[in-house]
């Protein structure tokens, strides 16, 4: 994973040591949590003026941690003030640039919260106007819905204050950038993720200042509501929003079928696209799908039904469209043997020092984390914060275990009455291990446990890929006629998708025009002349 480079800044926007340290921690954690992570379209970040990023909020603490790690520069994050009261997490949020937002639902004194919140929004606007960078989740809460929740007015109010401050002080106008967050499954370990930075939003002119407070308030209110609606629409487009997760899944699988069929028609070798490329492909398919649903629903109704039946059959045999498309014409024994050899080769490396160190240093806290989550799920904890709780408990359990096991191993190796110490001293070469400084050994071990865990995960990832490939070869050789029928059906569906898409101008085409701010992709889809 290549993280974005920070811009050159001076003064109070210069990144301090605490912020760098926490961001390094977040980046390390995110690179472990996700097996693949992409940041796309970073050229949309302007070089001049402040920036406010807005994103939807589907995955609790993972969303701000991922964006804190991914976005360049010093980012301030608005978070509900109750989080700052937590002993450890509160300090981490504050060190990471967090700013408290006072929601009336989180306080018994609604008027006090309203005043504090108004002051905070005004200060945040001033920060953005002066070149600062702010991250906000306009939905105001995390959720598990497939659609973007209704946006709150806070983001628009901050932007109004920022634009007004910049106008009065002759500063470059700040920018409002929607961010698309995409996860294959954010609550599962070692899944894939992508951060899509959309183009800056085009905002209406801000209301002119007047002496009449009532008319000023009304004019500002109209502007805030209009911009809030635009933010909500932009987040829906950036997140490929749908009303249900089933619709999202259908579009995602159809995207992979179209990709495979396009490769087959062109004669190119089928390769797995990156997750970011998959997200862009899903955006194209969603735009076309929505266009036909609105204008010619009868044209895609048979395709939708065929796709649902086909994907249900694939799910029943635990296969994917890639498994079907990648099948060779004649799956030979040599191919199967090569897949088996590749799996055995990686498996043999798994038996070395790296894996045993990873087991000792990481399996006990991992299992403790698993049991904790099991108990929390039994108590009915919301699914939207499962990923948050996994990370939160891991941040506590893993360091405590690493300290304990480092002390234990140091004592076992260096204590003069230890059986290991006595055994090592029976050989002149091994005796050198007992001469290591105990403090040095402790800190080396403390660093080694997480390092061995990362190395082990790389080996394990290759082992899993090779195992899946081995299973593919076994299935291909066992039921060749069945797989051939699946391929024919998949190619038929893929051909229909490509034919329908070929008649349309879609996102990514040379003649595609990006939608105006607040408009969905499907509104700008049109038939080719």
Task: Name the descriptors.
529 residues, alpha/beta, Glycerol-3-phosphate (1)-acyltransferase, 7-stranded mixed sheet, two-stranded antiparallel ribbon, 9 strands, flat
What is the strand tally? 9
Give the % helix: 55-70%
Specify the biggest β-sheet. 7 strands, mixed
Order of helices and strands: HEEHEHEHEHEEHHHHHHHHHHHEHE
User: What is the C-alpha radius of gyration, as a whole number of Å?
Assistant: 27 Å
Q: What is the mean pLDDT?
A: 87
**Annotated CATH architecture of the largest domain:** 3-Layer(aba) Sandwich
Major sheet: arrangement of strands: 1-7-6-2-5-3-4
- CATH classification, class level of the largest domain: Alpha Beta
- Which structural class do you get from the secondary structure elements? alpha/beta
CATH topological fold name of the largest domain: Glycerol-3-phosphate (1)-acyltransferase
Write down the domain tally: 3
Oligomeric description of these chains: single chain
Task: List the total number of helices.
Answer: 17
Outline: flat
Strand content: 5-15%
End-to-end gap: 42 Å
Detail the poorly predicted runs.
none
